[in-house]
Amino acid sequence: MTLNRVGRRGARSLRAMAAAPLVLFLCAGCRGASGPAPGGVPVKIETARAVSIDDTTEYVATLRSRDSAVIMPQVEGHITRIFVHAGNRVATGTPLMQIDPTKQQATVKSQEDSQASKRAALAYAKQQYDRLARLSETGIVSQQDLDQAKAALDAADADLRSASAQVREQEAELKYYDVTAPSSGTVGDIPVRVGDRVTVSTVLTTVDGTGGLEAYVPIPVERSPQLKLGLPIRIVDGAGGVAAESRIGFISAEVDPQTQTVLAKARIEDPKGALRHAQFIRARVVWGTHEGPLVPVLAVSRLSGQYFAFVAEPEKGGLVARQKPLRVGSIVGNDYFVLEGIKPGDRLIVSGTQFIRDGSPVSPQQQEGT
Fold first, then answer.
1. Residue of 253, 263, 342, 339 whose CA lies nearest to 61
2. Closest CA to 215 of 66, 57, 87, 68
3. CATH number for region 39-51+291-364
4. Would you list the domain boundaries of the chain?
5. Do the beta carbons of residue 96 and residue 179 sit within 8 Å?
6. Quick one: pLDDT at residue 13?
7. Three-state secondary structure along 315-353?
8. What distances in angstroms separate CA 91 from CA 24, 99, 351, one per listed residue?
9. With 60 as the cut, is the pLDDT of residue 37 above it?
């Protein structure tokens, strides 16, 4: 009797335990049927608007002076004097250095002495010819003697002209021992010292003129089909600002075999004197201008290399979040420039994205931006 009562109580307990999950399931179903809290997840929404943005790429370029002259001697010898220092401003014809002229001065002196001798010989030959010409008129001197005197006079005149030409040549070469600035500008590095022996292949210094600079921009061969004359180019300073603007004026027809790049050049005006010859700078080539929306970086997620963003779309009298795949371009400040996936007018969710999934009901947290 007691055992039957215990069995019946145990059976009722087992039935109650079996029914509990069903009750919990039904209650959960009731909560699910009621849906999320009214209004959905609060998020900040902005309306995407079209902006114009440049399609640019930055390269490391080199500045070259269009008026930079490499100073090399035209004669050999030892340097006896250096008149300038690196960084000095010089005008055209300013003496830069002197190469020992002693030997050349002796050569000039010898040629001048020879010239004087030839001049005296010519004067004597002319006297002889004049004397014989007067005697020839009276018949005392034969015509043959007169012709010989004329030939001697012509030979003396030719000798003097030859000697004079040699003197001018040696005097012109003597000027090469004084090295002067070919144009106005700034003196560069001076790698030689007083006493050094130099040849015609020795670099003495450089003089960088003020006629402007050229940017030498190496463009990867993959982008070379997009290169064209007149493309805008901007020189960017260390702070990211634009130091100078220009356009491409030269495109090389050859590819550099070492770097696989195509050389492009652009003239750079630098009225403030902030740029220098041989300086490495950042050159931003503007390939074109596009229109599209900007998306805050924090509103974009990335999964397996694919970018996504949420857009609020109307559905059943409210708003739901829809996840959109994006193709993004360059970063502008704190925003991505969107190439595909978001169009102007879309209601972009820019905050609270960590609390929502595709299809989640959302409600604007504040007034939408424009």
1. 263
2. 66
3. 2.40.420.20
4. 39-51+291-364, 58-66+211-288, 69-205
5. yes
6. 47
7. ECCEEEEEEEEEEEEEEECCEEEEEECCCCCCEEECCCH
8. 98, 20, 64
9. no
